[in-house]
């Protein structure tokens, strides 16, 4: 553009040369035309480049484009004006006259613009476009800067920060995506914190659970080392040691089983069995525990057998854990109901009466290390892994397990697929 501006603005050589060349190409087509109708067609096809007229010797218009209004021209005056062009003007009317045949002339009439003005005509719309572009997009640019500032705040660790959503265009969708991403990061971080708290709680709880029986064992062993004259005392202490050792062994076994279920690939040994008979065998094994608390177990099974494809050893552990939990927290002298139904899936219900239960406990009952009884010295509490182990085994069978609390009744619902 600098080069174009340096050129002499009065020199129309380039424009006129191009104009004449263009006109000659059109004139050649007109000369080869078969009739006036074809000439008329050629004129109309090129009217966007130049105005074209076919004149007689007197300058009267014989053929012209359909939009032209001129009826005649002074040929001498046109020729003279071309020779007396004022090149200081912004634009000039340039005419090219040529003889078409013995009786007709052809006139090409066009407007030529000075070089610097043609550049300005191009530049001005560009400048206007740029100005309008910045005016119209200024709002979006400001919003993009706001999103960038928001991202900087989020990157500092403020996952509660939310960017402002403005409008419903693509940029606002970016803002929504930033908020969604931040929310998910916040939830993930909260989950990580909960996992960390669970680990700390586990270390504290398992340390207490392991230390308590060990302390008892050490104490009673020291007593045995002393000299007792009464063999009955020795037998009593040995029984206590045996009980504490068994409890310690169960805690350790639960811990290792839970870790195995959640951190290793477990292969299930599934077989087809009668669920009715399987449940009766489980119940038979926990009858003594029910008798200790004066509890009754009511079986509500259908008359027909329900076949199921499960790993009986692992599922036995599930049912045993669920029933022991029901016995542990069931009101003394009440009843535990065990029922089975077959709908889209096979559903097992374990229902028992339980006082002093709340919504938080029912929601957390399957969480690892959670125990309904907060007192660590309570004889009710286990390691808090029994129901977590049961849930893991059920999920390995592509099943689900839920807990509901209605009034004074807790219902554990186990859902298993047919196959």
Automatic annotation (TrEMBL):
An example GO CC term for this entry is: plasma membrane
Q: Enumerate the InterPro entries for this protein.
A: HAMP_dom (IPR003660), HATPase_C_sf (IPR036890), HATPase_dom (IPR003594), His_kinase_dom (IPR005467), HisK_dim/P_dom (IPR003661), HisK_dim/P_sf (IPR036097), HssS/ArlS-like (IPR050398), Sig_transdc_His_kin-like_C (IPR004358)
EC number in record: 2.7.13.3
Membrane topology summary:
Multi-pass membrane protein
Organism domain of life: Bacteria
Q: What is its main location?
A: membrane
Q: What is this protein called?
A: histidine kinase
Species source reads: Clostridium scatologenes
């Amino acid at each position: 553009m600098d080069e174009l501006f340096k050129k002499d603005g009065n020199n129309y050589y380039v424009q006129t040369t191009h104009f004449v060349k263009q006109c000659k190409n059109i004139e050649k087509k007109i000369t080869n035309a078969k009739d006036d109708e074809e000439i008329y067609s050629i004129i109309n096809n090129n009217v966007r480049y130049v105005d074209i007229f076919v004149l007689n010797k007197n300058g009267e218009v014989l053929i012209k484009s359909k939009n032209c209004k001129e009826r005649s021209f002074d040929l001498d005056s046109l020729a003279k004006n071309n020779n007396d062009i004022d090149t200081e003007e912004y634009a000039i009317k340039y005419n090219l006259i040529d003889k078409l045949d013995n009786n007709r002339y052809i006139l090409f009439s066009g407007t030529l613009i000075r070089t610097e003005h043609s550049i300005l005509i191009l530049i001005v719309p560009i400048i206007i476009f740029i100005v309008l572009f910045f005016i119209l997009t200024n709002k979006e640019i400001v919003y993009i800067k706001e999103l960038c500032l928001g991202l900087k705040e989020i990157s500092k660790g403020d996952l509660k920060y939310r960017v402002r959503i403005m409008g419903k265009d693509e940029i606002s969708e970016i803002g929504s995506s930033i908020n969604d991403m931040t929310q998910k990061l916040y939830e993930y971080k909260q989950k990580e914190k909960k996992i960390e708290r669970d680990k700390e709680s586990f270390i504290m709880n398992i340390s207490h659970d392991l230390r308590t029986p060990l302390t008892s064992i050490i104490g009673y062993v020291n007593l045995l080392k002393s000299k007792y004259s009464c063999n009955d005392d020795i037998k009593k202490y040995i029984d206590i040691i045996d009980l504490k050792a068994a409890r310690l062994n169960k805690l350790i076994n639960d811990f290792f089983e839970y870790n195995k279920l959640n951190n290793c690939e477990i292969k299930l040994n599934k077989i087809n069995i009668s669920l009715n008979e399987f449940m009766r065998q489980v119940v038979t094994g926990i009858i003594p525990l029910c008798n200790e608390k004066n509890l009754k177990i009511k079986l509500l099974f259908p008359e027909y057998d329900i076949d199921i494809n499960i790993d009986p050893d692992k599922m036995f552990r599930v049912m045993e854990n669920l029933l022991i939990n029901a016995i542990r927290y069931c009101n003394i002298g009440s009843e535990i109901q065990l029922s089975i139904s077959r709908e889209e899936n096979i559903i097992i219900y374990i229902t028992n009466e339980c006082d002093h239960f709340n919504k938080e406990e029912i929601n957390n009952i399957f969480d690892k290390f959670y125990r309904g009884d907060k007192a660590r010295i309570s004889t009710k509490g286990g390691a808090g892994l029994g129901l977590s182990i049961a849930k893991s085994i059920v999920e390995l069978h592509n099943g689900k397990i839920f807990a509901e609390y209605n009034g004074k009744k807790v219902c554990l619902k186990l859902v298993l697929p047919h196959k």
